[in-house]
UniProtKB/TrEMBL annotation:
Coiled coil: 22-83
Pfam families xref list: Filament (PF00038)
Family: Belongs to the intermediate filament family.
PROSITE patterns: IF_ROD_1, IF_ROD_2
Provenance organism: Myotis lucifugus (Little brown bat)
Domain IF rod stretches: 1-108
GO BP of this protein: intermediate filament organization; keratinization
Span list, region Disordered: 119-148
Gene Ontology terms: cellular component: extracellular space; keratin filament
Keyword ATP-binding: no
Signal peptide positions (record): none
Name by which UniProt lists this protein: IF rod domain-containing protein
Length: 166
């Protein structure tokens, strides 16, 4: 009997300890659950910040690429414009020499052999020449930027003519 009483006395104490231990463990579980929830929300925030940072990095890269493309395009446009100036100067020079050749052919009474040198331009280079320097004119004044010179009224005689490099 005494053993039973002792066991009963022990069990209520044991039962009380067990209840206290159970309460402590439940509180620990609640704290850990709150910690886990907090950590998960921080991870989500940091992942959002990382994604935002990654997107910002890509945006910065794309803006830099766009700026570089615009600079390249501007450089190519300048080069194109410079080439067009050179081309127009050369077209004018060709028309000038063609006009000289035609004048020399007229002076020498040769057949118009220059026509064979410019197939498809039968309407003539007059469109490249300044006004008043058409097919019937013996005198020609140049007006191309970078070029200077004049032809005298005598067919085939050049007083001066020069073109600088562009």
């Amino acid at each position: 009997c005494e053993e039973i009483k002792m066991t009963m006395q022990r069990h209520p104490q044991s039962l009380g300890y067990s209840k206290e231990e159970l309460n402590r463990l439940n509180q620990a579980i609640q704290r850990l659950t709150v910690d886990v929830d907090r950590a998960e929300s921080q991870d989500i925030e940091s992942m959002e910040e990382g994604a935002s940072g990654s997107a910002k990095g890509k945006l910065a890269w794309l803006e830099a690429a766009l700026k570089q493309s615009r600079q390249d395009m501007a450089r190519q446009l300048r080069e194109y414009q410079e080439l067009m100036v050179v081309k127009l100067g050369l077209d004018f020079e060709i028309a000038t020499y063609r006009k000289l050749l035609e004048g020399e052919e007229r002076r020498l009474g040769l057949r118009r052999g220059a026509e064979s040198l410019r197939p498809g331009l039968a309407r003539g280079p007059d469109r490249l020449l300044p006004s008043g320097a058409g097919a019937g004119s013996d005198a020609l004044e140049t007006s191309t930027p970078g070029c200077s010179g004049s032809l005298c009224g005598s067919p085939g005689r050049v007083k001066e003519f020069s073109c600088r490099d562009f």
